Amino acid sequence: MNNPILLNGYTLSQKKNEDLKKILVKCPSLSLATILVGDDKASHIYVQAKIKACQNVGINPIPVFLSKDITEQELLKKIELLNNDSTVHGILVQLPLPDHLNSHKVLESINPKKDVDCFHPFNIGNLYAGVSDFAPATSVGIMMLLDSIREQWSIESKNVVIVGASNIVGKPTAMLLLQKEATITIAHKKTKNLKELCLTADLIIIAVGKVNLITKDMVRKGAVVIDVGMNRIQTEQGTKLVGDVDFENVKDQTFAITPVPKGVGPMTISALLYNLYFLYQQHYTKNNNDLR
């Protein structure tokens, strides 16, 4: 297994964005409000990337930059104004929020019809009930990557091990894969015998934020590996971004694998744009076809 498929999220995201851009030309102008509280450097980078992506496909970005000292009541009031603004089709709050703000309360205040991140209990509940495949953007991006190799590799009936049980990646991704009739195991920090568990997997998805957690001896030959991890390490050449997988040693063991960077990251932003269009279809038109 010497020539694995490199699941290049950067290339695929460019194609998906171009496809969406052509469709949005036929729609009324859509807008996405992005709320950033405080001055966290990483959050600013992510928000700027989302703004640029919106502009590239013809979505109107509405950046909302707020002081780190804003009160919870003031933030909730701002979200209420956006909820009631008919020119705003989607709202997202960049996480993490400052410690004095209750993230759950803030996210639940977003109108589910504008909840582009799919973090509201109403939307995530529909996903878990199996009545919708509207999901958090990282999970949707993962499904897009897997769909790109569907002619060579099908999700149906595969054994999947997801390492990481977060509400943002692990749990919603499991729900989407269940809808595709895969068999799912979710591992977490208290899981025993992780190596033996991973060796049973046709597909490993890892999102925990630990460098080189998945090594060659944990991956069966011909498996697909999706690395959601993003870790910054110091090298002689400077800061380097790596995932949770020992990529160089694992890659030749796999049928397909995502790199870090240019793997899941770009797909998450593309999926966010598709989520906005999904909400528009679902709530503002009678055409509920899912582009994904």
Describe the structure.
The protein is of the alpha/beta class. The chain has two domains: 27-112, 3-Layer(aba) Sandwich (Rossmann fold), CATH 3.40.50; 136-264, NAD(P)-binding Rossmann-like Domain (Rossmann fold). Helices cover 38% and strands 18% of the residues. It has a six-stranded parallel sheet with strand order 1-11-8-7-5-6. It has a three-stranded parallel sheet with strand order 3-2-4, with helices on both faces. A hairpin with a 2-residue loop joins strand 9 (231-235) and strand 10. Helix 6 (137-147) packs across helix 10 (264-284). It is globular and about 55 Å long. Residues 287-292 have low confidence and may be disordered.
Instruction: Quickly name the level 1 CATH class of the largest domain.
Output: Alpha Beta
Q: Element order, helices and strands? A: EHEHEHEHHHEHEHEEEEHEH
Q: Assembly type of the shown chains?
A: single chain
- The SS-based structural class is alpha/beta
The CATH homologous superfamily of the largest domain is termed NAD(P)-binding Rossmann-like Domain
Output the strand order for the largest sheet.
Answer: 1-11-8-7-5-6
Integer tally of domains: 2
Our estimate of the beta-strand percent is: 15-25%
Number-wise, the strands total 11
Kindly identify the CATH topology of the largest domain: Rossmann fold
The shape is: globular
Q: Stretches where pLDDT falls below 50 for ≥5 residues?
A: 287-292
